[in-house]
Design brief:
13 helices; alpha/beta; 275 residues
Length: 275
């Protein structure tokens, strides 16, 4: 099965273009609590979206699903989740949790109105993964390698893919029968140190079923002329699907060889960033 492609935006016009290009799920990020402090001095984007964006996106989505990432659990969580469910979210994602109790509360707040997705991005959540995944009512899971690599004190987020951490967590998800994915991916053919082709092959090796299209795939903050956006977006999705077809045809040995290359590239990047 092709990967479920997720794209982050709060712009209904961009969401409509992504949907038409073949994106399976629009990802609205409402998480703000603690994020700026965790990702200080990093080349990341802190979204300042609004709950009012949920209804605006719902109005244009006819084929793609709508996922809403709420804040980590706090006193206002039930109200946030109630709003997301009422305004048309298909899936609600819980970030930055550490305990099974938080997950139980989250599932209770969702109350079967939306599908539930857990974003594993703390070492504590990984440590208690069996207790957490035993909570009834979890529909899917994703590994947030950005915050998780910070939690483990790593220099580069894909170290977790190279050192077996992502693989161990994926095996747990599979053991509990959950659909899952990890991290994000840019465009095949891009001139980057760790190519999208190698990351996509890792998704297939690890049985992943979903991935976020990263900022590098389509960075709207750098696009001022949208006249060719629809064609450009469609070409990017088509490139990913073509790459996936190659990944799906890989033998186990070819997958393992790709993993070895990922480890080699990550080691070189990590060494470069030492100091």
């Amino acid at each position: 099965m092709p990967l479920k492609l997720m794209y982050l935006t709060n712009d209904p016009s961009v969401a409509a273009i992504a949907q038409q290009a073949g994106v399976d799920r629009i990802f609205l990020d409402l998480e703000l609590r603690g994020k700026e402090a965790r990702q200080k001095n990093m080349d990341t984007v802190i979204s300042h979206n609004s709950p009012s964006d949920i209804g605006k996106l719902r109005a244009v989505l006819t084929k793609a699903e709508l996922l809403v990432r709420v804040n980590s659990l706090y006193a206002g969580s039930k109200a946030e989740i109630d709003r997301a469910a009422a305004d048309g979210a298909d899936v609600v994602m819980l970030p930055y949790f550490k305990t099974a109790r938080e997950v139980r509360d989250f599932v209770s707040f969702c109350a079967g109105r939306v599908r539930t997705c857990l974003l594993f991005e703390t070492p504590e959540a990984v440590e208690h993964i069996d207790e957490i995944l035993s909570v009834p009512g979890i529909d899917e899971a994703h590994i947030g390698i950005n915050d998780l690599h910070l939690g483990y004190g790593k220099r580069f987020m894909f170290e977790l893919l190279a050192d077996g951490t992502v693989e161990r967590i994926c095996h747990k998800f599979a053991e509990y029968g959950l659909p899952y994915g990890f991290g994000g991916v840019g465009r095949p053919g891009s001139n980057v140190a760790l190519p999208a082709e190698r990351i996509l092959a890792e998704h297939y090796r690890l049985g992943s079923s979903q991935v976020i299209l990263s900022r590098a795939f389509c960075d709207m903050s750098k696009i001022h002329d949208r006249s060719h956006l629809a064609e450009d977006f469609k070409a990017g999705v088509d490139d990913i699907r073509a790459c996936e077809a190659q990944c799906a045809a890989m033998t186990k040995q070819e997958q393992n060889d790709n993993h070895a290359q990922v480890q080699k590239i990550v080691a070189a990047i990590t060494e470069k960033h030492k100091g």
